Amino acid sequence: MIHIPISVLPSTPAVDEGARVMGICNSCRYCEGFCAVFPAMERRLTFTPESMHFLANLCHNCGACYHACQYAPPHAFAIEVPKAMAAIRKETYTRFAFPQALGTAYQQQGLALSLAAILAFFVIFIVGALSVGDPARLIEAPGPGLFYEITSHGLLVSLFGPVFLFAVSAMVISGMKYWTMLRASGNEAGFPLQEAAETAQAVLTLRYLDGGGDGCPDQSDAPTQSRRIHHHLVFYGFMLCLASTSVATLYHYMLNLPAPYPFFSLPVLLGTVGGILMVFGCTGLLATRAKRNPALKRADQSVMDVGFVVLLLLIAASGLALLAVRTTAAMPLVHLFHLSTVLAFFLLMPYSKFVHGLYRGIALWWHHREQRNPTRLKLSDG
Amino acid sequence: MLDVLVIGGGNAALCAALSAHEAGARHVAVYESSPEAERGGNSIHTRNIRVMHRAPLGHLSESYPEEEFFQDLLRVTGGKTTEPLARMVIEESETCPPWMQQHGVRFQACLGGTLHLGRTNNFFLGGGKALMNAYYRSALSKGIDVHYDSAATELLFDGNRCLGARFERNGVEVEVRAKAVVVASGGFESNRDWLRDAWGPAADQFLIRGCRFNQGTVLRHLIEHGAQSIGDPTQGHCVAIDARAPLYDGGIVTRIDCVSLGIVVNKHAQRFYDEGEDFWPKRYAIWGRLVAQQPDQIGYSIIDAKAQGRFMPPVFPGETANSIAELAHKLGLDPNSLQKTVDNYNQAVVPGTFDHAVLDDCRTEGISPPKTHWAQRIDTAPFTAYPLRPGITFTYLGIRVNDRAQVLFDDYSPNLFAAGEIMAGNVLGQGYVAGVGMTIGTVFGRIAGREAARAA
């Protein structure tokens, strides 16, 4: 007898389509060598909404399976795994968002929310800066204190602290909800060290955006590493910027060394290299997205996808601009704009495309656990 | 004027075009009957190539010597093969994987559920369509012209010398002249009239597992022009597939893998063959013909709850019921007859130890036909049934060639070569062993291309 999983999540048209597609893929299995989705699929015979929210987040949308598919349109089966999975991921991002209403709002009005947040923070900063001290300092070259002459350290901490804490808490809650769903889907023994190592390797090398070795067939059926490289320019650039901020925080509190720092200091060098990587990566992602095969992008998700990359690009570019103009009269406004983009980014982080990393990381972790457990199926080819 | 004209767009055709280019032909063109989105013929449904190897080769374990490969071929064809050509194909198969990789083809370990092929068959990463995509990319990068929507209507001859061909492209006739021509345009399995000529009215119920473009136009034209044929039009690769499969291009997913776990009955609810005779490879090869010989060419594979989850998941859900009578009703079979068949079978099952991985001792006694292995009572609801029809993969009637792939008329043509399904009957007169169609297509495609370049 087979174990029939019980479903708690409701079905939706996107989940139904995903289950239909996986049912056909599971009879074929030619794509098994491309990525994590297909080996995970082969451990299942029925595709519940839970399993679809799992498989969909394993999918990196590389497109290899689409181009290899004997059942892709014009075949009557009309199998388009990347599209089916993308539609479900979109539902993961709202269903597991905390609070869910914000997730829904972002899905509907992501671009407007991003722009509104940037603008609102920009206004708050200017009003805040005007209310204390001389208004003229916003259009004059700053003194030796640089940034803190415009916005006090206390103001920054009181704004960034709560926003950052909120974003991190919201994502922790989302991640826990998602992990709980996965845990409930099967009683798999844990192998924490191996799972951690395998997941870290998959994430740090973006292993599953390689189309099974040669790259993503992004524009045509020809594989290219372009998306993988550009994505990880952004990823590592972002990490360097995060490291820059962390080092600066340590300097401030531990060494009693407040900003500004000279160009040849650890925080500025980390931030500069990180910013440059992000600008190249974001530009590359936007450029290749424009040429991407229509089968690999959904019109209803371009705002979310493009909006997220544009926001990252704005942060990186305004950060670099700030470095360039930090002793000039343009500095105060560029500084406030940069702060606004960073704050908006953090505030919307739990609802934006940023969470693809959260759910994919957790899904990969669960995948590596599953793969270390023997399959429960007793399929034989006898 | 072209140096080499290749008619067809599947594996053998692309191997021929690439090989002709490698051998020095500069003006090479491929004429494929399908639109670009459906290019590649039946090759897009394939997943591996059988290759001999003296030592572990890439994902292939151990060794697969020439003699063992030949004996495998001899066994399935019952001797209906041309030994020198078969041995040449086998010997040359060893050189295929590196050559394929040069053209962008990638391999992977054998797929889940195919462990028994891990030593003999090299699996394409992503399957046959990914393989064809790689070949087309390689061809285009070398300046080989590819014309889609171009179905050959006739070849042009001066005696045994081929001058070129005519194609119909979007309703317009195009004449193409070439110094040498390769025909790699497949068999005739998509041509219902021809199937009916060979099989009689039963052919009306056949489903075509491959593409709709294999009309056999070039094959027929060559035979009419005096090319010597080889093989029997009723021979081909014919398996029992889900009766609800699409008419064309159902491919791999329409196979039904639970035959050996239950019983199979015809439209009169009668069993007609030993469901537990042998493992998958043989079962796969014979059940299409068995169903084709039943009234209305329909069968029903019936299992109970014990078999659930033990076989490769079928693409369409089965018909389920909580009693045999209810199942019969849903299938449109006579409930009393089906109940009687199941009761007789259940009573004949003798106790044994079920093991699907070996030819176990679960069998029947005292009924005809017997079930000689994996026989378990069908007694646990819910009961499930899958309807079966014959599904044609490809046909073996072909054109006789020599070891240089030259087409034989009264004598061998100096500049007309054949590769792939259109000549596979030279090696494969009947039966089938997994992956050998791609071996024949790749080896003969490369030979045909090379020889065509020499003749050009």
Give the strand tally of chain A: 0
SS content category of chain B: alpha/beta
Classify the beta-strand content of chain B into a percent band. 15-25%
Shape of chain A: elongated
Strand pairing plus helix content of chain A: what structural class? mainly alpha
Spans of chain A of at least 5 consecutive residues whose pLDDT stays below 50 are none
CATH superfamily of the largest domain in chain B: FAD/NAD(P)-binding domain
What does this structure look like?
The complex is a heterodimer of chains A (about 375) and B (about 450). With about 375 residues, chain A is mainly α. Chain A has two domains: about 15-95, no CATH class; about 100-370, no CATH class. Chain A is about 65% helix and about 0% strand. Chain A is built from 14 helices and no strands. Chain A has helices at about 15-30, 35-40, 50-60, 65-70, 80-95, 100-130, 145-150, 155-185, 190-205, 225-255, 265-290, 300-325, 330-350, 355-370. In chain A, helix 8 packs parallel to helix 14. The longest helix of chain A is centred in the first third of the chain and has 32 residues, at about 100-130. By secondary structure, chain B is α/β, with parallel strands linked by helices. Chain B has two domains: about 1-235 and about 395-455, 3-Layer(bba) Sandwich (FAD/NAD(P)-binding domain), CATH 3.50.50.60; about 240-390, Alpha-Beta Complex (Flavocytochrome C3, Chain A, domain 1). Chain B has eleven helices and 19 strands. Chain B has helices spanning about 10-20, 65-75, 85-95, 95-100, 130-140, 190-200, 215-225, 280-290, 325-330, 335-350, 435-455; strands at about 1-5, 30, 50, 105-110, 120-125, 145, 150-160, 160-170, 170-185, 205-210, 230, 235-240, 265, 300-305, 320, 385-395, 400, 405-410, 410-420. In chain B, strands 1, 2, 6, 7, 8, 9, 18 and 19 form an eight-stranded mixed sheet that branches. In chain B, helix 1 packs parallel to helix 11 (about 435-455), helix 2 (about 65-75) crosses helix 3 (about 85-95) and helix 9 crosses helix 10 (about 335-350). The longest helix of chain B has 20 residues, at about 435-455. Chains A and B meet through helix 1 and helix 4 of A and helix 5 of B.
